[in-house]
């Protein structure tokens, strides 16, 4: 059995469409849990103060409600939020995390209940040690509760908008007007290489002069090897400028903006 | 290959927006009936967005568009393939009480029998231990008030002229409810450890129960014991057994490699039953907590033992009838 840890959960639908979800790291999940814990404590401080007002009528009744209340709030918070907000609590919303069925389907109520009830074991012996270890060693970063409910926690980070103007794009780009060439580059340049080129341009001032020339020479050679170029697209421009031109057509959005994670 | 990306986006954008609007409408009211036209449109737009995603999937640029399409297709996929029967989505309290809960326990009778047998074995062990070696009481009894002489305790309880729980009944009930619920849910959760933890907890619970029963019977305090334990015990002990049943159902799913399904599928298949039994356990323990605090702790002459015993027996009969018969008609109708 392949026990390799996955960073992404890929779902292939019966219709043959494939899409992926990035699995949340244990650190992010811990941060979301801390936010939720603080939220529950803060909410409970307010609610308990209100319940104590019942003490004017009966101190005993107020004590009874407080005894049960914290238990219900602490357990019910996760269940209610994840059911109502489709797999999110306040902490998960803040950290852009979401619980979902590991087949990419919506959560059933029973899955939400089971994964929250199983916290009793995940928190053992202290500070989520069992759950934390399970997420570290498991293939899909699942704690025991996720395992039992067949759920995963995914990370849905918003894409940061990037201003290509920071790259000092030239007014004239020899590739810009050549739609077929631009399309071939978009199809042939791998995402990893495109981001490497983008990073190289962002950090170009940090490089030693010789290393800078060598790096952009290497990148330009690789881009040139991906598709035949007409002479006018490549003539009289430096390797760095050529890479800049490629990055512009690859990342250049058909709309107004360009998005990438930096 | 998409040659003119801007043109591609301009052509497809209206369809993506239409799908987004359709999904948002479904999200606002998941139980709204779907017309045939709407279903056809959803299917068409989903397939179209899927094809668009496949076309842009290899692009290194346009991560935002790719992510947007991925999310759109994922949502549509979830909407289409995650469709469930209405009663599985919307919580219907009365139906849940009058059919789902008793039916679930009957369906899981095997695990319930195992939980009961383990408790009984523990009770026999605890009873024999105290009968053979009275000093074992010290080791077995978790609470100090159980370690003393039963006859002395009974005399003290019956002599009491004041209500010792006056002003604390609700607090005590709350304490009992939360403590017992935590223990029961813990027994459930330990089912994930192949059921070993659940079995140990059940056995230990049985040991305490057996030890207390034998201790009081040996001291000739059977009537007091029945009056003390029956009112809340006939609900509390079955509640713990129901919670443990859920744990054993989980364990069965973890261990049941022979049925050919992967572990996740086996666990997913029992999730409804586990959640139902957990909720049933909590509900029963709320009742048991109230009864223990407001009735069980009061003895003769305040409340005659016969009355308390009768109350407990009526509860036991009602509980047995509830889990034994309620919801059978609903099952037949469903068939």
Protein traits:
heterodimer, A: alpha+beta, four-stranded antiparallel beta sheet, elongated, B: mainly alpha, 0% strand
The share of residues in helices of chain B is over 70%
Arrangement of strands in the largest sheet of chain A = 1-2-4-3
Strand content of chain A: 5-15%
The rounded distance between the terminal residues' Cα atoms of chain B is 53 Å
Mean pLDDT of chain B: 88
Q: What's the β-strand tally of chain B? A: 0
How does the major sheet of chain B shape up? none
Rg of chain A over CA atoms, rounded to whole Å, is 26 Å
Q: What is the overall pLDDT average of chain A?
A: 84
Question: What level of helicity do the residues of chain A show?
Answer: 40-55%
Q: Which runs of chain B of at least 5 residues are low in confidence (pLDDT < 50)? A: none
**Most extensive interface: pair and counts?**
A-B, 67 and 72 residues
Q: Please write the string of helix (H) and strand (E) elements of chain B.
A: HHHHHHHHHHHHHHH
Outline the biggest β-sheet of chain A. Answer: 4 strands, antiparallel
Q: Tally the beta strands of chain A.
A: 4
Q: Which regions of chain A have little confidence, pLDDT < 50, spanning 5+ residues?
A: 255-262
Q: What best-fitting shape of chain B do the alpha-carbon axes yield?
A: elongated
Counting H and I runs of at least 4 residues, what is the number of helices of chain B?
15
What is the terminal separation of chain A in angstroms? 35 Å
């Amino acid at each position: 059995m392949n026990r390799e840890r996955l960073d992404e959960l890929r779902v292939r639908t019966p219709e043959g469409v494939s899409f992926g979800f990035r699995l949340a790291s244990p650190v992010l999940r811990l941060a979301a849990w801390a936010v939720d814990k603080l939220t529950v404590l803060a909410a409970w401080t307010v609610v308990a103060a209100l319940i104590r007002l019942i003490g004017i009528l009966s101190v005993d009744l107020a004590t009874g409600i407080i005894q049960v209340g914290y238990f219900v709030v602490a357990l019910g918070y996760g269940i209610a939020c994840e059911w109502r907000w489709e797999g999110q609590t306040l902490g998960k919303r803040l950290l852009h995390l979401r619980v979902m069925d590991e087949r990419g389907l919506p959560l059933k109520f029973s899955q939400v209940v089971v994964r929250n009830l199983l916290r009793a074991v995940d928190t053992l012996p202290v500070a989520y040690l069992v759950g934390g270890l399970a997420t570290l060693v498991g293939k899909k970063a699942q704690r025991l509760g996720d395992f039992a409910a067949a759920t995963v926690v995914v990370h849905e980070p918003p894409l940061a908008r990037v201003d290509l103007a920071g790259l000092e794009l030239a007014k004239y780009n020899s590739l810009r007007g050549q739609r077929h060439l631009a399309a071939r580059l978009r199809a042939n340049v791998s995402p990893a290489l495109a981001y490497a080129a983008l990073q190289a341009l962002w950090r170009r001032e940090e490089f030693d002069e010789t290393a800078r020339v060598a790096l952009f020479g290497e990148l330009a050679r690789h881009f040139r090897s991906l598709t035949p170029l007409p002479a006018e697209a490549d003539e009289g421009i430096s390797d760095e400028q050529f890479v800049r031109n490629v990055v512009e057509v690859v990342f250049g959005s058909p709309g107004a903006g360009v998005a990438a994670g930096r | 290959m998409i040659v003119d990306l801007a043109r591609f986006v301009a052509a497809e954008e209206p369809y993506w927006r239409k799908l987004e609007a359709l999904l948002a409408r479904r999200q606002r009211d998941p139980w709204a009936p779907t017309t045939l036209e709407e279903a056809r449109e959803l299917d068409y737009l989903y397939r179209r967005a899927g094809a668009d995603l496949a076309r842009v999937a290899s692009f290194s640029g346009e991560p935002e568009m790719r992510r947007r399409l991925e999310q759109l297709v994922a949502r549509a996929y979830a909407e289409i393939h995650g469709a469930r029967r209405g009663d599985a989505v919307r919580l219907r309290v009365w139906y849940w009480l009058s059919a789902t809960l008793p039916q679930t326990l009957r369906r899981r009778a095997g695990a319930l029998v195992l939980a009961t047998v383990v408790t009984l074995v523990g009770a026999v062990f605890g009873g024999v231990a105290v009968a053979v070696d009275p000093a074992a009481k010290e080791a077995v009894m978790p609470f100090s008030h159980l370690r003393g002489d039963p006859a002395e305790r009974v005399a003290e309880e019956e002599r009491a002229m004041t209500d010792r729980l006056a002003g604390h009944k609700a607090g005590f009930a709350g304490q009992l409810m939360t403590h017992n619920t935590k223990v029961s849910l813990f027994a459930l959760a330990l089912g994930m450890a192949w059921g070993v933890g659940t079995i140990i907890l059940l056995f230990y619970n049985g040991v305490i129960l057996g030890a207390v029963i034998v201790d009081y019977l040996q001291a000739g305090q059977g009537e007091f014991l029945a009056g003390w334990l029956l009112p809340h015990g006939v609900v509390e002990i079955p509640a713990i057994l129901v919670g443990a049943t859920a744990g054993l159902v989980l364990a069965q799913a973890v261990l049941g490699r022979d049925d050919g399904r992967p572990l996740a599928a086996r666990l997913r298949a029992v999730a409804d039953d586990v959640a139902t039994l957990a909720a049933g356990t909590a509900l029963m323990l709320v009742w048991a907590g109230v009864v223990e605090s407001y009735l069980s702790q009061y003895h003769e002459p305040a409340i005659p033992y016969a009355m308390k015993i009768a109350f407990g027996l009526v509860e036991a009969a009602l509980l047995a009838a509830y889990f034994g018969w309620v919801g059978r008609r609903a099952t037949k109708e469903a068939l």
